[in-house]
Amino acid sequence: MWNVLLSFSGLVALIQLLFLPFFPESPPYLLLQQGDKAGCLKAMKQLWGEGNYHTEFDDMMKEKAVTKGTKIMNVLEVLKEPSIYPQLSTMLLLLLSLQLCGLKIFQTASLQESIIPYVSLGVAISELVSIIFCSSIIDRFGRRILLWGGYLLMALILVLLETSLLL
Fold first, then answer.
1. pTM for this one?
2. Where are the domains of the chain?
3. What CA–CA distance (Å, rounded) separates 137 from 111?
4. What digits encode the pLDDT tens for the residues 115-140?
């Protein structure tokens, strides 16, 4: 039943891929990152229907005023900031504990006991690299393009995987 399981996640990715272009950008993103007040109000109306959104808009404008002097940092600058070390160590601890939970999965997959720690370490390192890589390219290309491309790639890979399982 692996093919049914993989088909289901591929179907969900395909549905998300088809509907994503019709959704508006996030109103806070449009206002705070892009500085587009008219686009922000238009997105609010599209997401929440007709109504008076001046309170929410004013709150976002206050947030924009507060964050106006702050510098947007990239991933490497964030990693060098000592004030985030407690949060970073918590995330790394969580990532490592999740990898230890995955040991049972590798045992169930009939991998040799001697290589399971290396496979688990490889998965953890690849996840960490992908997190850093994805975080840095989100700022460069924007969320919508990356979500659309990610869903397209996920759907294609799952179709290829499903086809290879059937053959």
1. 0.43
2. 1-71
3. 35
4. 887 887 787 788 778 877 777 777 67
